[in-house]
Structures are given as structure tokens and as C-alpha cells.
């Protein structure tokens, strides 16, 4: 049985006020009705449909907890406050800590909604153990993007696999960036996106992938001879190269 380990790179905000759920419902990519069943994974987009931040939301009494990468926390809170206007909503940092782990969930823990192999998350006053789990290996195995690595301000969430990660709802109604996201879902065929690749050798995260003389994409997180890459699908065939590494599409 694995014990939980501390997520020291996360910031927690407590969102309170009578309008907290309706306020977030009109902004984020997922349906907050899911809070009744556990964690909700979602993103905030700009009006052009591009990624600003991804986070987890959890109901806790008269508050909604927002769990985001710490380096994105201040900017996200500022953006949310910009949208607040006259809504009865207060956004404040929380002293809670995030613990995540694998195996049976302890009391109060919630399943990570992105993939079963990502285990559970728990929000409490106390910290967990020192990190021992190779989360990158799990992410690479299932092509799960990470904030600030595969997920950047140029990201469209459907190209990042948010539908498979249960991070977007197409029936919930309007939110910021919804029109672009819906158009990509219903009116176009994705021509590029994140995929799992085989990697012989290694290359720094962010290395350009070349197919012959043409740019095919970018190589990101790698683990155990595999990696996550952002590829143009029309160029993703045969052997590609990222610096000295040979990259092939995982069939």
C-alpha cells in the first residue's frame, strides 16, 4: 500500500460566497455539478479559447477549494477577481495542504478524475510524506499533460486531450473560450495534438521534433523510453528526430 506524499508545488484557494458555484460555472471548462461526486478537473481559457490555467475543484462545506500549480496561483486569482464584479464571491488563499497517493483512498481523499492510475488527492491541515512516486512515468504512459510543461499559453485544451481527461463538458453552456472549444469539437478535425511516442535516446524538454527537414512538433516529458510529444499529425510518420533522440509515433 502506498502512503500519500505532499504536493509542495500547489497553491490552494478557498472560494466562498453565495454565488461561488454559479460564478465558476460561467468561467471554467467543466460542469461544476460534478462537485457532488468528487473532484472536478477544469481549465480557465482566454476568450480566444487558449489555455490560462488548469486546476482541481473540490466542495468543502460552504467553500469550493481550488487546487492549482503554485506558480500559476497569483495570476489565476487575479483573473478570477477581474471577473467577479458584483457577484457574492470571495477568493482567498487557504492554509490547507495537498497530499496525493496511490492505492486505497484514506478518509477524506478524492479520486483524481483524469485517470484511475493517478490515484487520489486529499486536502488537510497536515502534510504528507516525502515524494517517492514517479508521477512522470504515469503521465507519460497515459499522455497526461502537466501545467507549464505540455500545457502552455499556446495550448488549445482539446489538442491537449482534455476530453479524455474529463476536463471539459460540451453540454454545460457558456464559459470563457467555449465558442472556440465547441467549434474545434464539432466543426473541425484536429490536425495536431499531444500523443505518446517512443524515444530512443533523450533530449531536453521542449526540443523541436523534425521529420526530415520539416518541423513536426515538440518533445516534452520523457520516461522509460517513452515521451509526450505535440505533433502535427500529417508529419508524424516514420523516424523523427529531436536533437540526438529518435522519435517514433506510439502505434
Largest sheet, spatial ordering of strands: 11-12-13-10-15-14
**What is the strand content?**
25-35%
Task: Please name the fourth-level CATH homologous superfamily of the largest domain.
Answer: Aminomethyltransferase beta-barrel domains
User: What's the average pLDDT?
Assistant: 95
Task: Explain what the structure shows.
With 251 residues, the protein is an alpha+beta fold. The protein has two domains: 138 residues, Aminomethyltransferase beta-barrel domains (Alpha-Beta Plaits); 59 residues, Aminomethyltransferase beta-barrel domains (Elongation Factor Tu (Ef-tu), domain 3, Beta Barrel). It contains four helices and 15 strands. It has a six-stranded antiparallel β-sheet. The longest helix is centred in the first third of the chain and has 15 residues. It starts with a strand and ends with a strand. The model has no long low-confidence stretch (mean pLDDT 95).
Task: Provide key terms for this protein.
single chain, 251 residues, Alpha-Beta Plaits, Elongation Factor Tu (Ef-tu), domain 3, 2 domains, five-stranded antiparallel β-sheet, 4 helices, 15 strands
Structural topology:
Elements: E1 5-6, E2 10-16, H1 20-25, E3 40-45, E4 51-60, E5 63-69, H2 70-84, E6 90-93, E7 97-101, E8 110-111, E9 120-124, H3 135-142, H4 178-186, E10 192-200, E11 207-211, E12 214-223, E13 226-232, E14 240-242, E15 245-249
Antiparallel strand pairs: 1-7, 2-5, 2-6, 3-4, 4-5, 7-9, 8-9, 10-13, 10-15, 11-12, 12-13, 14-15
Amino acid at each position: 500500500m502506498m502512503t500519500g506524499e505532499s504536493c509542495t508545488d500547489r497553491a490552494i484557494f478557498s472560494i466562498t460566497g453565495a454565488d461561488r458555484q454559479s460564478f465558476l460555472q460561467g468561467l471554467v471548462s467543466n460542469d461544476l455539478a460534478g462537485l457532488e461526486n468528487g473532484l472536478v478537473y477544469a481549465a480557465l481559457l482566454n476568450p480566444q479559447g487558449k489555455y490560462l490555467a488548469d486546476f482541481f475543484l473540490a466542495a468543502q462545506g460552504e467553500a469550493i477549494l481550488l487546487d492549482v500549480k503554485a506558480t500559476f496561483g497569483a495570476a489565476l486569482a487575479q483573473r478570477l477577481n477581474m471577473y467577479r464584479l458584483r457577484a457574492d464571491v470571495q477568493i482567498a488563499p487557504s492554509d490547507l495542504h495537498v497530499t496525493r497517493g496511490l492505492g486505497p483512498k484514506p478518509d477524506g481523499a478524492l479520486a483524481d478524475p483524469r485517470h484511475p492510475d493517478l490515484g487520489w488527492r486529499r486536502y488537510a491541515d497536515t502534510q504528507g510524506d516525502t515524494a517517492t512516486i514517479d508521477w512522470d512515468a504515469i503521465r507519460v504512459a497515459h499522455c497526461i499533460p502537466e501545467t507549464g510543461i505540455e500545457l502552455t499559453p499556446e495550448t488549445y485544451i482539446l489538442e491537449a486531450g482534455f476530453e479524455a481527461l474529463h476536463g471539459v463538458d460540451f453540454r454545460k453552456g457558456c464559459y470563457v473560450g467555449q465558442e472556440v472549444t465547441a467549434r474545434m469539437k464539432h466543426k473541425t478535425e484536429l490536425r495536431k495534438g499531444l500523443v505518446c511516442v517512443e524515444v530512443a535516446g533523450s533530449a531536453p524538454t521542449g526540443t523541436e521534433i523534425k521529420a526530415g527537414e520539416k518541423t513536426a512538433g515538440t518533445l516534452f516529458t520523457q520516461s522509460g523510453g517513452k515521451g509526450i510529444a505535440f505533433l502535427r499529425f500529417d508529419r508524424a510518420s516514420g523516424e523523427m528526430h529531436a536533437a540526438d533522440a529518435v522519435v517514433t509515433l506510439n502505434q
